[in-house]
Amino acid sequence: MLEVIHPVLRGHRSGELVFTTLLWPGGPPAPWPRHLARLEADAKRIGLVPPDLTHLAQDVDRAVNGIHGLPRVRIDLVAVGGNPWVEPPHATAIQIAARSALTTELAPEPARVTVGDAGHRHATVTLSPKQPNLSLLLARNEARRHGFDDALLSCTGGHLVEACTSAILVGIGDAEWLSLGHSCGAVASTTVQALGQRSQLRCGVLGLRDLPSIRWMLLCNAVSGARAVSHIETHKLGSPPSDLMAELRHLCQAPAHATL
Questions:
Q1: pLDDT tens digits, one per residue of 105-122
Q2: What is the pLDDT of residues 199-232, one digit of tens each?
Q3: Residues 128 and 182 in one domain
Q4: Which residues contact 249 (CB under 8 A, 6 or more apart)?
Q5: What is the tally of structural domains in the chain?
Q6: Closest Cα to residue 257, out of 81, 88, 86, 23?
Q7: In a shared domain, residues 83 and 141
Q8: Does one domain contain both 76 and 145?
Q9: Rounded Cα–Cα distance for residues 238 and 116 (Å)
């Protein structure tokens, strides 16, 4: 079964199609055709068999043929083989999707994330993916206004992760536990990049549910002391059940085991 890694679509710039940065960090998205060379190099760098790019240009042309207006193109990297929790994929493939896109659709939408202190209190903050510094300031102020220390407990739901995780992890403090919830398709380049920049971030447990193996390995290796835990259900931050917290505390005592 193929595990599809959903990329982040960046929109367009000066009439050029700007393709997804895909999973890996490393600067802004590159315009066609530089994106292809970078994709292949990134795959090789982390030890994957590079995807076959021979006919990708033609495939993109066919995908956008007949679309009126500016086409929005999405290139998904697909992991072939491996196990989502233990074994990295054996190879990579490419999946292409395209549709028409209005300019107004390209603007990022603000997202909301809940921050808290592992207790029963929580605060919800509206964050902007285009203004991470302001987002961080707002999150800190809101958390302190509710009596928290700088602490991130949870960022669950795919639409929150890309917009919020990178902004919060780079400055809001160490987390007792961080849960990336079900269908987190937006765990992409900026999130992984931010995690990599905070190599000393301490997180007792990194709970991943239904995430492809590439992201699983990258995230676990970016967070010091993290231990991957499969199938942890997503819970509201304000009142985590005692059995879940007990499980997390138990897992915090175990050494990290993910290696890349």
A1: 333 333 333 433 334 344
A2: 444 444 444 443 443 344 444 444 444 444 443 3
A3: yes
A4: 204
A5: 2
A6: 86
A7: no
A8: no
A9: 8
Given a contact cutoff of 8 angstroms between Cβ atoms, the answer to whether 155 and 168 are in contact is yes
Beta-carbon contacts of residue 257 (< 8 Å; ≥ 6 apart):
227, 228
> What mean pLDDT do residues 147-165 have?
38
Strand partners, 92: 79
Range of the domain at 93: 3-106
| Of 183, 191, 248, nearest in space to 210 by CA | 183
Same domain, residue pair 115 and 244 = yes
Question: Among 41, 45, 2, 38, which Cα is nearest to 212's?
Answer: 2
Cα–Cα distance list, 224 to 135, 183, 196, 209 (Å) = 24, 24, 10, 19
Residue with tokens 């175990």: 254
d(CA 96, CA 94): 7
DSSP strands (E only) in 101-209: 111-116, 122-127, 175-180, 203-208
Q: In which element (H, E) is residue 171 found?
A: none
Domain identity same for 199 and 165: yes
